[in-house]
Amino acid sequence: MHSVNKLKSGLRVLTAPCDGTASITVLVFAGAGSRYEEEKERGISHFLEHMFFKGGNRYKNTKEVSVAIDGVGGDFNAFTGKEYAGYYVKVAAEHIDLGCDVLSDMLLNASFPQDDIERERGVIMEEERMYQDTPMYRAGWDFEELLFGDNPLGWDTIGKEKVIMSVQQADFQSHKDSLYTPDNLVVAFAGKISEDGAMDLSEKYFSGINGSKNREYKPFESYGPERVFLRTKKTEQAHLVLGVPGISSLEDDYFAQKLLAIILGGNMSSRMFLNIREAKGLCYYISTEDDSYMDAGSLSTRAGVDQSRLHDAIKLIKHEYMECVDKGITDEELKRSKDFLKGKITLSLEDSEEQAHFYGKQELMYPKVRTVDDYFAELDKVSKEQVNTLATRLLTPEEMRLVVIGKEENKGGLEDMVSS
After folding, report:
1. Dihedral (CA of 52, 58, 64, 68) sign
2. pTM of the entire predicted model
3. How many CA atoms lie less than 13 Å away from 110 in the CB half-sphere?
4. What is the pLDDT of residue 419?
5. What mean pLDDT do residues 94-121 have?
6. Cα separation of 302 and 304, whole Å?
């Protein structure tokens, strides 16, 4: 079972002891994702993530940070999403003091040296070019921009080149001071650790974090009005994403949407995989995914196909959506999707890093933290009728959005396909 305690500063410390592992992950979650940004600072959240690794007082640069963790065979990394960012160290249990020391030094004492900022601008621009050159990724970003429109939920986390090339030391310090505060952070420990051990480590290494959160993200208001986005580019495959607005993470149908996505295209026994890849030989990759934010969501299917079969793929994916609406799902599909998701969660949570993520994200974002048993109970409650009702509500032609990257040049023809 997990537990949550607070330091005097108000910083929450979550502990998730895990039998049968020799590792400990300490993961610091921050409510500091890219949707907190304004237009003039697009990309600063992700850039700040990079800059934390440039060292602090005790580990003065990237080399000293990496040598310390590499020297004990540990893992360390970070991520920036739309609604939160995270920083973690995973080490053998006997090295957890070192892991906490490195992580706390980064978060407490980062000074964002100007020379490092200048060098890192180029690193981030190369990261951005990597995604531009990878249509599978780029199509997903384009779909979020199309669906969520011109607001922070629709912006990609890499940001704008003009911001990346101009942001300064004071900008990073200001952003850190406004969001990396005790009331907006969760320190999650998972693995071979006790509640008392986690509190002692937190008191020793993280009690110096201070301040209070002084910015909020803007509530999401409406989905984008455009239906189709076409990026004409010389690619070997055409890459497409076809989807609809979905359920937010706080809505009652959150779990039903997860199961619907699995049934449609979440694994190798799903409808999209069997009926389009296997039966038609149309694509190598095809999958349906759901994304849920605090006040918005999406459900979409992505695939890569031969340029000449793009239109066939769009028709077939849309056909699977409408078959689901018209005929509903089966009892067997519902049971399989529940068992699949439970199995995946069970396997993933054998890893202390995944344990820290599972519980820490919930503590940061949601009104209550569900245990694994709670989560499974919510899945068990979902009925066939609930999934069918949700499919009918979401999978309507008038709400569908389509992104295509490839040699296609006729946006009007794609719009006709989506709306007909």
Report:
1. negative
2. 0.95
3. 28
4. 82
5. 96
6. 7
What six digits make up the tokens of 173? Answer: 């310090």
Catalytic residue among 37, 41, 49, 353: 49
Residue 57 contacts by C-beta under 8 Å, 6 or more apart in sequence?
105, 109
Q: What is the mean pLDDT of the chain?
A: 96
The two three-digit tokens of residue 234, written as one number: 């010389």
How many whole angstroms separate alpha carbon 135 and alpha carbon 408?
A: 14
Helix (H, G, I), strand (E, B) or coil at 62: helix
Do the strands 237-245 and 297-306 form a parallel or antiparallel pair, or are they unpaired?
A: antiparallel
399: left (phi over 0), alpha (psi -120 to 50) or beta: alpha
CB burial class (10 A; 0-12, 13-18, 19+) of residue 350? Answer: exposed
Cα–Cα distances in angstroms (integers) from residue 401 to residues 59, 267, 315, in the given order:
48, 23, 13
Distance of CA 316 to the CA centre of its chain: 28
Asked if 346 contacts 336 with a C-beta cutoff of 8 angstroms, the reply is no
Of 223, 246, 241, give the one whose Cα is nearest residue 231.
241
Beta strands (DSSP E) in 134-282 are: 185-191, 228-232, 237-245
C-alpha 334/C-alpha 180 separation (Å) is 41
Three-state SS at 282: coil
Residue 196 has which token pair? 């008392």
CB 303 within 8 A of CB 286: yes
Task: Report which of 93, 73, 97 is spatially closest to residue 21, judged by C-alpha positions.
Answer: 93
Q: Which two tokens stand for residue 290?
A: 């759901």
Distance CA 368, CA 190 (A): 18
Tokens 């079972």 belong to 1
Domains defined along the chain, listed by start: 3-206 (3.30.830.10), 228-419 (3.30.830.10)
DSSP codes joined into one string, 172-186: HHHHHHHHSSGGGEE
pLDDT digits (tens, 9 = 90+) for 337-378: 999 999 999 999 999 999 999 999 999 999 999 999 999 999
Whole-number Å distance between alpha carbons of 372 and 183: 25
Identify the CA nearest to 317 among candidates 265, 281, 268, 278.
Answer: 265
Classify 69 as helix, strand or coil.
helix
Is 49 one of the catalytic residues? yes
Q: Is the dihedral of CA 107, 112, 150, 394 positive or negative?
A: negative
Contacts of residue 280, Cβ cutoff 8 Å, sequence gap at least 6: 312, 316
* Cα 92 to chain centroid, rounded: 26
| CA distance linking residue 40 with residue 322, whole number of Å | 41
